[in-house]
Structure to design on (132 residues):
């Protein structure tokens, strides 16, 4: 048996010329566009589910606070809770990851029901966080 043909190729085709390559693999410089796409994909993966879930859970903690749990759920309370939770949970993350976490969290949040109290809405929000 001829063992020469079983080894890795020592040359590869690149266009019309042939050039020697180590271990038979052609190494190419990374493409800037590909790197950017990879960075964005990694940022999305980082944001899912931990940051988005933590954000929803922090908002639920704010909304479900004993002092306000008996009050009707309002958009004003939602905005205050979101603002506090974003500062607390997403502080220090890169802007892209933080933005993706916010988008994922807002997309996953359940719509409040008419007349629902903060104490009723907070567990539904926590359930949505666990579902991420």
């Amino acid at each position: 048996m001829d063992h020469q043909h079983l080894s890795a190729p020592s040359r590869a085709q690149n266009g019309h010329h042939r050039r020697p390559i180590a271990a038979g693999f052609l190494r190419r410089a990374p493409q800037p566009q590909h790197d950017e796409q990879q960075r964005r994909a990694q940022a999305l993966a980082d944001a899912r589910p931990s940051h988005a879930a933590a954000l929803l859970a922090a908002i639920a903690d704010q909304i479900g606070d004993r002092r306000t749990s008996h009050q009707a759920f309002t958009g004003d309370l939602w905005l205050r809770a979101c603002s506090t939770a974003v500062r607390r949970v997403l502080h220090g993350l890169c802007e892209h990851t933080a933005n993706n976490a916010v988008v994922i969290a807002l997309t996953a949040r359940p719509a409040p029901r008419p007349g629902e109290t903060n104490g009723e809405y907070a567990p539904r929000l926590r359930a949505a966080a666990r579902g991420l």
In short: The mean pLDDT is 78. The radius of gyration is 26 Å.
